[in-house]
Amino acid sequence: MPLIRSWVQSANAPDHPFPLNNLPCGVFSSSADEPRCGVAIGDFVLDVAALEEAGLLALPDGPLLDVPFWNDVMEAGPDVWSALRSRLTALLAEGAADRAAVEPCLVPLADVTLHMPFLVSEYTDFYAGRHHAFNVGTMFRGAENALPPNWLHIPIGYNGRASSVVVSGTEVRRPWGQLKGPNDDAPRFAPSARFDIELEMGAVVGTPSDGPVTVAEADAMIFGYVLLNDWSARDIQAWEYQPLGPFQAKATATTISPWIVMRAALEPFRTPTPPREVPLLPHLQEPGPMLYDIALEVSLTPEGGTETVISRTNYAEMYYSAAQQLAQHSTCGCPMNTGDLLGSGTISGPTKESRGSLLELSWGGKEPFAIAGGTRSFVEDNDTLTLRGRCKGDGYTIGFGDCTGRVIPALADPYKRT
Question: Do 194 and 361 touch, CB atoms closer than 8 A?
């Protein structure tokens, strides 16, 4: 599909992340206004709530945009999602008859604050990237036993904390927790010294389910995708995770990008999952390509320093797709809700430069890697980590907006009450 040209001229630049082909969904505010739903187009946010109020964006079963989140639209289902995109495309396309009525609803992106784009119902994080799983398993169990016996048969995941999902730009405080090194006789309570990031994609569930769904049905349930950084305290995790897996090590924060890129915008970039090393059971077999060709990168900027890109990889490196993860989640009859968020698991590639966590990049801290002006093994205080993602189309780019978080120092005493 080529670029769809818009009368918003900045949207037509081939490297701009928000062309008319994209139309990602977010929530914004400006000056003293309350947060409201908007869609990014070029260098602007289109106030879709105002369009709906003015009768220019009549959606079935509306109004759906009179709230500061996209959950009502998401729950309305794929027909409404399609109608929304079609109407917005007609209003913003070159030569649109209603341009004069729509133009006052554009707000410069530079003048707005972006908020959480949806209400997170539940959050599940997966461990579904083969390169990451193999790297981490090799560090702790050796290459011969790197993958758990079940890994090639099912996408492994755990239930996380929806309450700690935050939007890009939110500061992340270094957590305290129980730590125990290999030579320690007993655990101690201290700030995490091995704080880390995980480069992931997040799938946002639109329509709910009640009972098992197929991979094809699961794919149709997904409203869109965000970039996702699952902050991880590796030293807390090392002590607590046996036998039930991550707990407090993963509960500090999960940062997402501010724009939900709808599944329809990603259709031209579909790509298959890699060849299976062992056959999957029928309920996890895919009817077609379920991954996307999304180029990803991570950068690290020290306080007052220069940004360094520390990793480049691609979402196509995943072993299991979001649709497979969602289908597996439902197999026991577990209901899926509008606003459920599924983290893909760390997306690493086959080379050192494509590893999606500092744990892998520094090989457990044993091999510090270079950044501008120094080295890193794990995240230090006042470091800013930024995730970026894009798809390259025929004369256009699909972007997600930066997914950024700065780590601030741990509290001196987490139990001191003022």
Answer: no
Residue 160, CB-side half-sphere exposure with 13 Å CA sphere = 29
Q: Are residues 106 and 239 in the same domain?
A: no
Q: Residue 297: which pLDDT band, with cuts at 50, 70 and 90?
A: very high
* Same domain? 389 vs 339: yes
Same domain for 203 and 262:
yes
Q: 2 lies in a domain?
A: no
pLDDT at 32: 74
- Per-residue model confidence (pLDDT) at position 184: 85
Residue 413 placed within a domain: no
pTM of the model: 0.97
If asked whether residues 88 and 225 sit together in one domain, one would say: no
Evaluate whether residue 79 is within a structural domain: yes
Output the domain CATH number for residue 22. 2.30.30.230
Same domain, 109 and 127: no
Share of the chain residues as helix, strand and coil, in percent rounded to the nearest 5 = 25, 30, 45
Beta bridge partners of 159: 124
Assign 3-class secondary structure to 283-343: HHCCCCCCEECCEEEEEEECCCCCCEEEEEEEHHHCCCCHHHHHHHHHCCCCCECCCCEEE
Q: Per-residue pLDDT tens for 38-57? A: 999 999 999 999 999 999 99
Say what the pLDDT of residue 61 is: 84
Return left, alpha or beta for 391; rule: phi > 0 is left, psi -120 to 50 is alpha, else beta: beta
106 in the same domain as 184: no
Structural domain harbouring 264? 123-408
Q: 89, 115, 141 — which closes off a domain? A: 115
- Check residue 150 and give its pLDDT: 96
Residues 97 and 135 reside in one and the same domain: no
Over residues 152-189, the pLDDT tens digits come to: 999 999 999 999 999 999 999 999 999 998 888 899 99
CA atoms within 13 A on the CB side of 313: 29
Q: Known catalytic residue: 132?
A: yes
Nearest to 63 by CA among 78, 48, 77: 48
Q: How far apart are CA 280 and CA 283, in angstroms?
A: 8
SS3 403: strand
In a domain, 415, yes or no: no
User: Among the options 16, 115, 131, 132, which is catalytic?
Assistant: 132
E strand spans, 57-133: 106-108, 113-115, 123-126
Q: For position 100, what pLDDT does the model report?
A: 98
Residue 234 scores a pLDDT above 90? yes
